[in-house]
């Protein structure tokens, strides 16, 4: 006589598998959020300056690297970058939609802040370490009524620009500003 045992089907418990899957999804989601927070300041070209080499040679330094390399036309620069021109060289830079800067020979310009907010507000802050720049700033975007800001700093002064065409040169001895059109607020630093 053969006896047959009826096997009971074991009911599978999916709880541990679901717990593992949910844990992996949660860790992945938290990882993405963490990397977005940590790397949110990664270089983005949405607010940039584009260079055109008009004559001669220009060099650039990215951020705080301190190393210089040759610049090429249509190259983009971001907050923290610096551009310098060699002897007998001239370049143009377009910043945030049509604002133009022309750098003369032996000039060095740092992009302290280039920012374009979703509200349309633009912030351009530059530092002219040496040399000469001619600048044309949009009347519409940087007028007295807008919250946008265009500033140029030297060792001795800070220019707040309001839709202007101006020329600025700085040497170890003096700064010279020539206003061609528009308005500039000048703050002179005390020694």
Largest beta-sheet details: 12 strands, mixed
C-alpha-based Rg, rounded: 28 Å
What proportion of the residues is helical, as a percent range? 10-25%
Number of strands: 12
- What distance lies between the first and last C-alpha atoms, to the nearest angstrom? 112 Å
How does the helix and strand content classify structurally? mainly beta
- The amount of beta strand, in percent, is over 45%
Secondary-structure element string: HEEEEEEEEEEEE
Number of helices: 1
Poorly predicted runs: none
Description:
With 191 residues, the chain is mainly beta. Helices cover 13% and strands 46% of the residues. Strands 1, 2, 3, 4, 5, 6, 7, 8, 9, 10, 11 and 12 form a 12-stranded mixed beta sheet that branches. The chain is elongated.
Supply database-style keywords:
12-stranded mixed sheet, about 190 residues, mainly beta, about 15% helix, elongated
Summarize the structure.
By secondary structure, the chain is mainly beta.
Provide the fold topology.
Elements: H1 15-38, E1 49-55, E2 58-61, E3 69-70, E4 76-77, E5 82-85, E6 90-95, E7 99-103, E8 108-116, E9 122-136, E10 149-153, E11 157-170, E12 175-188
Parallel strand pairs: 9-10
Antiparallel strand pairs: 1-4, 1-6, 2-3, 2-5, 5-8, 6-7, 7-9, 8-9, 9-11, 10-11, 11-12
């Amino acid at each position: 006589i053969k006896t047959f045992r009826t096997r009971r089907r074991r009911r599978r418990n999916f709880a541990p598998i679901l717990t593992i899957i949910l844990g992996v999804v949660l860790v992945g989601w938290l990882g993405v959020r963490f990397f977005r927070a940590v790397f949110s300041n990664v270089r983005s070209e949405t607010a940039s300056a584009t260079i055109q080499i008009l004559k001669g040679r220009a060099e650039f330094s990215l951020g705080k690297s301190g190393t210089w390399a040759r610049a090429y036309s249509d190259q983009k620069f971001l907050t923290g970058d610096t551009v310098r021109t060699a002897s007998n060289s001239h370049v143009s830079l377009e910043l945030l939609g049509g604002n133009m800067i022309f750098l003369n020979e032996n000039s060095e310009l740092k992009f302290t802040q280039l920012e374009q907010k979703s509200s349309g507000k633009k912030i351009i802050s530059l530092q002219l370490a040496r040399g000469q720049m001619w600048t044309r700033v949009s009347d519409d975007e940087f007028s007295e009524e807008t919250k946008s800001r265009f500033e140029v700093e030297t060792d001795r002064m800070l220019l707040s620009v309001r839709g202007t065409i101006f020329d600025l040169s700085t040497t170890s001895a003096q700064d010279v500003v020539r206003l061609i059109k528009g308005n500039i607020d000048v703050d002179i630093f005390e020694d």
